[in-house]
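Researcher: Go.
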Amino acid sequence: MTAVDVGVRPLAIFLMGPTASGKTDLAARLVAHLPAEIISVDSALVYRGMDIGSAKPDAALLARAPHHLIDIRDPAEAYSAADFAADAIPLMADIAARGRIPLLVGGTMLYFRVLLEGLAALPPSDPEVRAAINREAALLGWPALHRQLAAVDPASAAQLHPNHSQRIQRALEVHRLTGIPASELKGRTGAWTVKPIGDDYRIVQFGLLPNSRQLLHERIARRFAAMLEQGLVEEVKRLRDRGDLSVDMPSIRAVGYRQVWGWLAGEYGVEEMGARAVAATRQLAKRQLTWLRGWPGLRVITLDDEAGNPRSGEELVGNCLKILQNSPIY
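Model: Structure:
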């Protein structure tokens, strides 16, 4: 099947869902049917040497379905949503220019949102203001600062959990620097760090979601057990032995890595390490599902039927292709 020049905006496919839902497998199946190239939308897969705990596609799968934007950063380096957009948007344009379909796959919902909504140009960070906010948080707690934010920028506060420290900090910082709510600045036109891509593509958004939360929990537990068998502890040991990484870095804060790191540091036993890792992964999945609840334009592909029976890979890809049949690529 090949793409057809129909004189319309090029197609882009977003495939999102919670961790352990099988997005990578479904994406690989889709590229067997479509002239598509996969762009990873995952804040952990960007890091080299973090393969097992991030569920990075193995060599055999990558040979069948190559992925862009994996193994592009050292774990000591930060990687932001703006960095992702700066990498992904030119990639999408290049893929589309070659008559192919950008297929963006992952669970880092913020990255998808930046592509869809853009990123407004905001004032740069001020170390003194940020330090003052951190001191207040240490004294009062982040929920108290969330209430402060709600008083000056209710629109931003409504989108944030009371313990989402980084985003509360940034929204308060913007208000204290400018006297203008961050939500208002983001709404102003003409000043974008990242422009929304909606005018450039016809975007079909798939959400790979469970009917039964229990099914997802079972998949999470099985996957972490498999990671341990595959050598996750040894992988984290190699990262610790480098000497330049810490649990405060975004790479090592990834679920699974920080729990094994804590065990290696003697903070708890092996059984607690496993329980913490599974619990943290379940919390991540819950946050991802919260993002996706009510996500505009989402076409839901269910992992299981109403009785909780898992759907086969062939059925899942068939359901996606049925939706895409309305696209001019067919």
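Model: The chain has a mean pLDDT of 92.
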